[in-house]
Amino acid sequence: MRIFDRITDSGHEQIVFCQDAAANYRSILAIHSTRLGPAIGGTRFFRYASEDDALQDALRLSRAMTYKNALAGLRVGGGKAVILAPAGDFDREALFRAHGRFVDRLGGRFFTGEDVGTTTDDMEFVALETKWVGGRKGREGGDPSPWTALGLYCAIEAVSEASFGSRDLRGRRVAIQGLGNVGGVLAERLFETGAKLIVADVDPARVQRAVDAWGAEAAAPDRIHAVEADIFAPCAMGGILNDETIGEIRSRAVAGAANNQLLEDRHGLALADRGILYAPDYVVNAGGVMTAGVGRYGWSMEELERRVRGIFETVLEVVRVAEREGIPTCQAADRLAETRMAPADSTGK
């Protein structure tokens, strides 16, 4: 498909291809919508199999950010940056400073922060070149990962309420795929509330820590979706819900922090057909982006926590819309987000 056809089909406003050979830097900045305000979205650093894969990721992630921001109550648009991780050695500071210069050239149309593969240290490098960056140490909510984990925990409570009639997670078996900055925090919180953990990660040390510290059961990373559990929480990379895996899932519900969990939109219907409750990822993982409200709207940390915990009710509202209209939850979330995008008010409060 030609590039302008892809942009038109996905509803994007602008795609920027960036390169700085001296810094070993190549990236794609995707702005899906500035209808409600500047596009906000993280910067992903990943070694893609192809440039086309990188573009597809940027398009899908940035569109999801538009809907995520709307449901998060932020009167902003959606965007995303993906940096193609170079092979071999490179200067991380030089690379992320180059990224900052390209973000700065957009003049505030795009505001970025952490995502998969990037850290608060990387954002400090970006901030040397542009003011349009968040997720910095000790500023504007700081590291967004713990807030993403809190929102995910609340979403898991919501799917438990919808599936089992109670948000109480004591004794519930939760299968977590990925024990990184979000999945690891989630696992500890679930353990503290009495849930039973089954975990998987490509890093054996993370798995062993969960086994030793929280009494978790270990599973293979490529089979964690198929273990017998109450709730499956994908917290690694996207595309885990696909033709091969959906038929093997033995959980009543899916609620995880990974972006783009559905390989294709039709897989949301496939989950519904199997009677598996799916909490759409951009609803579940909105806690991190809500930290932007601290700097943008002057939210206190107490207000930030209140908003993140509100993900519990948002997930239940998505479930109610899906049941009322007889549609999959992924479609219900889109409709709810589009409704929230409609008002012209842009205060974000």
Blueprint of the fold:
Blueprint: H1 3-10, E1 14-20, E2 25-33, E3 39-40, E4 43-46, H2 51-71, E5 77-84, H3 92-105, E6 110-111, H4 120-127, H5 145-164, E7 173-177, H6 183-192, E8 196-200, H7 204-214, E9 217-218, E10 231-234, H8 243-246, E11 253-254, H9 266-273, E12 277-278, H10 281-284, H11 292-297, H12 301-309, H13 311-325, H14 329-341
Parallel strand pairs: 3-5, 3-6, 4-5, 7-8, 7-10, 8-9, 10-11, 11-12
Antiparallel strand pairs: 1-2, 2-5
Explain how this protein is built.
By secondary structure, the chain is an alpha/beta fold. The protein has two domains: 3-67 and 77-127, Leucine Dehydrogenase, chain A, domain 1 (Rossmann fold); 145-341, Rossmann fold. It is 43% helix and 15% strand. It has helices at 3-10, 51-71, 92-105, 120-127, 145-164, 183-192, 204-214, 243-246, 266-273, 281-284, 292-297, 301-309, 311-325, 329-341, and strands at 14-20, 25-33, 39-40, 43-46, 77-84, 110-111, 173-177, 196-200, 217-218, 231-234, 253-254, 277-278. The strands form two sheets. Strands 1, 2, 3, 4, 5 and 6 form a six-stranded mixed beta sheet that branches. A six-stranded parallel beta sheet has the order 9-8-7-10-11-12, with helices on both faces. Strand 10 (231-234), helix 8 and strand 11 (253-254) form a beta-alpha-beta unit. The chain starts with a helix and ends in an 8-residue tail after the last helix.
